[in-house]
Each structure stands twice: as C-alpha cells, then as structure tokens.
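Why does residue order matter? Because the sequence determines the fold. Keep that principle in mind as you read this record.
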Amino acid sequence: MTRTLLWQGLMETFDLYGYQRVTTPPVEYADVIERGLGTVDRRDLVRFIEPDSGEVALLRPDMTPQIARIVATRLQDRPAPWRLCYEGTIVRRRRGRARKQHQVLQCGIECVGLKGPEADAEVIEVAVRACERVGLRDFLVELAQVKIGAEVLDHVPANARLAVVETLAAKDATNLEKLLKSAGVIANERRRLIMLCDLYGDRSVLSDARRGLRNSAARRALDELERVVERLESAGLGDRVAIDLSDLRRHSYYTGVSMTLLAAGPGEPLGMGGRYDDLLRRYDAPAPATGFAFEVDNVLWALSEAGVSLGGKLPLRAVVAGGSDARRRRTAELWRGRSARVAVIPSKSIEEAKRYAKAWDYDLLIWHQGSGARLTRLSDGRSRTLKGEPGDELFAKLISWARVGDET
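Structure:
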C-alpha cells in the first residue's frame, strides 16, 4: 500500500508539469532494447525465446529505449516536445555466483524534442518537486557532464578505462595515479584526471575546472552545465544541487548533463537521469532528449530513514458489519463519499468482524447496533458510539480520530 502511494505521489508531480503517462510492455523483442542500449553485456539481460514467433525476447532492463521507440513510431504526428512519464518494473541480472535477477520498480519522465539547458533544468526541477511532494526533505542532486569524460578518457587505454572511472568515482587520487602510471598515461593527462577528484561542490567548481580543462570541447561542456545550474538557481533550487565532475559512470546512451539523486538510507541512488541526444536516431527519428527515473524502493528507504511516514496520506480504510444488508450498504456509501476505502462483511459477531479487520490491516470497524453504530479504532481497540448519520463536520472529526488517534 505504501509503495503504491509513493509512486502515485511521484506520478502526480509528473502530471503537474504536463507529462503524459504511457505504458510499455514488460517483455520486449531483444532487437528493440539492444538497439537502444548500444554496447550492453548480454549476460546482464534476461533473455528467452518467444514460443509463437521464435524471436529472442527479454525482460526490459531499461524503460528509456521503449519510450524512444514509442516517440519514433507512434507520436511523430504530434509536435515536439513530447513530455512523457511512466511507471513499471525493470529486471536486471546481478553478477556473482547466484546470478540472481533484480526487479526494480521505476517511475520516470522523458522530455523529448527539447534541447538546451531549459530541458535539463526542467527534468531536475520535476525530480526535486516530486521528492518534496512525497515528504523527502534532505536530499541532493549531483550533476555531472558526460562530455568531460569523453575528453579526459580519450588518453586512457581502453582496457584501463573502467578501472579509472571507478577509481575516479571513489575520489581516490593516490590509487588513481598508480593506475594511470601503470596504464602508460603521460604526466600531463594524469594531472588532468587526478584534478577531477577535487572538482566537487557548488558552482565555483566550474571555474576551477576551466583552469585545468583548456581545450574547447571541454569548455563548451562546462558552459552547458553552468547554464543548467543558472536556471536551477533562478528557480530557487541552487541549494538542492552539487557538481561532481569526477563521476563519469553513466549509461552508454548519455551524451551531456547527467544527474544522480542521493539521500541517506539505501546507499544507492534514489534516481538517475541525463541527456541522450543520440538515442532517438537509433530508431530513425533523431531528436534531442533528456529524462530521469526514480527507483521507488530506494525512495521508500530514504523516507523511512528520515522518519517520514506516508501513512497519514493514505485514505482511511474501514470495515462495515452488523445490522441489515441495506443498512451496511448505506453506511459504506456514506463513508466512500468521504474518500474512505470500505469493505462490507456479513459477520455474525463484532469479535469476528474485528478479527477480519485486523487481519487485513483496516483502520476502523463500524459495527451497527440498535439505531446507531459502534466505531472501533483497530490500532488500539478504542471505541466510540455514533447515533444517526454524521454531518460533514463530525465526519471530519471521526476520520481524524480513526486515523491518528485524535480524542476530540
């Protein structure tokens, strides 16, 4: 229930910014996904033969290639930009002896057909506002620039790049220098890479980076990132972001500014995103694009770590029992009219009704007796008597009492 409530809250935020929901299948032909993912290790994908067609299919490991294909094949008759959102489960295979599959519930947005810093800043703003909407307060969005990685890694031998990227991400300058020396990287390039370990913080980091990254391509990449930061600051979100130029770990299809959402708790990102201007070209519909995806369970973990409960946002859940069938149905409709979720059961005794309500985690039992009803709060067993049908003011008090224990 809480998981559902969370993704609903995230999706509501997407809707507020004009993102329209699309649905994609959990099973997709392998060529559709692999074309979008580019260089991917097939051992990370859950593949099988589709019985009817004999085609190779897989459980989707990523939603973005599917969204790109929808834009390319179904939405070309609509003008850009395409603002789309989604929720669904992806499946990844975890490396190691067990080779377990890992299912991840994601909610995300894709802004396709809009280039420039306004699109990147919009996606980041939506992510920030979604966090705030569900009650998360202490979080940070780290911004990086994939183009920086393309520049500085060009002088690193291909067989050493993965280790360099991971060591950079750990900001381990000592081991990075050893690794670069053993890979035969010349001194000037070693200094540029090691410098990245210290390029973390606020906007001033970009000035430091310009002094060390002097070629024109790197400077253009830094300018792109700075324009995004400027727009976020103008929206009052400057304190929500940090710049991390040492983080070069990204999907193969990212091409520009990327973002990672972090908070205390899961030890993993709550969400990730970035610009992917070349992905739509793989589906014969070139267009600029950027997006972001939340990992719902990691957001739940962060909320729990912060002591934030979504329970108060849940609709009241009640069981109606006792009395005649007509009376039970009448009471149920009254409470449903106040947005309560109500189940009607034909229990023979109040104790039987309580057992049912507790077993299914209801908040309230409404038991008809005589001309009135006995309301029992399942959290602590306290009861109160209700005579007749309550008006709006009394309904509000009863719902408050049933949900949070207000004794008035």
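The radius of gyration is 27 Å.
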